[in-house]
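Example 4.3 (complexes with small molecules)
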Amino acid sequence: MMKSEFSVGLLGIPFDDNSSFEKGPALAPDLIRKVLTSGSLNSATELGIELKNNEQWLDLGNLSFSKENHFIDDIYQPSLKFLAANTRLLSMGGDHSISHPLLKAYREYFPKLNILHIDAHSDLYDSFKGNRYANACPFARVMEEGLCDRLVQIGIRTLNQHQRAQIDKFGVESHEMKDWSTGTVFDFDGPVYLSLDIDGIDPAFAPGVSHREPGGLTSREVINIIHQINAPLVGADIVEFNPHKDIDHMTSQLAAKLVKEIAGKMLICD
Ligand code: MN
Ligand code: MN
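Answer. The structure with manganese (II) ion bound is encoded below.
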């Protein structure tokens, strides 16, 4: 493993204005940080990366939002600055609308970009309750704007006719849970961005979400999928953790574990 020139920055995005059902994900970044620094987890990742005193691993704090700006600019502009400084982002949302401006910035720095999207939902609605930026819509915007070369979705278990039509229209590789085989490995050609909606994981493991959808992936499966990404993981977001719905910190603990494992994977230079 070579010493790489980039850093990985943990970025909190406390924003849930586009939650279509229940607010709460804006509170997630601070709670996930609290678990990470609580002493309940050690700082070694399963892939053998040590996060403590690792000069490549930074905490960038939280973004702030102003009433004057559109939320897209409040996320896109600072993301561009971080990427310009060779800091790759591991973002903690926030509702899923935050992924679109992050990917808008990423596309400018990664001319080749694949997205691995883990979610119970395809988030491909053209518009939801009159909002084209709702948390049900980000990947429709991503595909319209050509922000990736390939979108692979897993964990999906809520498709309706409109979303199936959107999948066909945009050429999305959407893998439904009903057809899922544990151990499926995807072959990526070029950099990968991971967008991880916590509700892709079964609510038995992650009850702290606004849209609980039984029949999802296990925590172990998601961690293995992250470890097995066969191309550089250059960015990631963890979204839709809603602390109001959590039970005894189960979901904040899982989110913190996922931050560690994603960070470890992003820090491996290959
Ligand atoms: Mn979802
Ligand atoms: Mn989502």
